[in-house]
Amino acid sequence: MSDETKIPAPIPVGVRRIPGGSRLVLDAFAQTVIEDVLNALLSTDRDRDLYERLVALAELDPDERALRPEHRMPYEELVADLAERASKHTHLYGERGLDLAERLGVNAVQSLPVGHWSAEAWQSWQSVKADAEAAAAVNGGAAA
């Protein structure tokens, strides 16, 4: 099995095994968020002020930045406004959610200590699943 499993979805999700469990690889999701932010910044309609605010921040010198309220980043409000316009989720339809759950489960079980009750439960579920898939294959894909 490869180091990373891709779960196809409207925005694909990668799952990579790590010693403690799983790492979700969200490259395609990150690209979608960046595209949303750029679209908001470059929009010529209602979001035009976002671009103007970005330019104003870029033009601040260090002394002007130091005049900001204590504990406030100079771009904090702009980030919040851009985050409102950026993608925050993707969908996993049908079996894709189960595919993700299974991959996460495999990685989690492999990180558990030997003899952990969850590992035994997982192995039992895998055995039942394999039996059900074999029965479905024999019956031409119909549920038994």
What is the CA–CA distance across the termini? 29 Å
Rg from Cα: 23 Å
- Note the beta-strand portion: 5-15%
Shape: elongated
Output the structural class: mainly alpha
Q: From N to C, what is the helix and strand string?
A: EEEHHHHHH
Approximately how much helix is present in the residues? 55-70%
Counted by DSSP, the helix tally is 6
- Give the strand tally: 3
Which strand order spans the largest sheet, edge to edge or round the barrel?
1-2-3
Q: Could you tell me the mean pLDDT?
A: 85
Largest sheet: 3 strands, antiparallel
Uncertain stretches of 5 or more adjacent residues: none
Describe the structure.
This protein has a 3-stranded antiparallel sheet, with helices on both faces. The chain has helices spanning 27-42, 48-58, 62-66, 76-85, 95-110, 117-138, and strands at residues 4-7, 13-18, 21-25. The chain is elongated. The chain is built from 6 helices and 3 strands, in the order E-E-E-H-H-H-H-H-H. Helix content is 56%, strand content 10%. A hairpin with a 5-residue loop joins strand 1 and strand 2. The chain has 144 residues and is mostly helical.
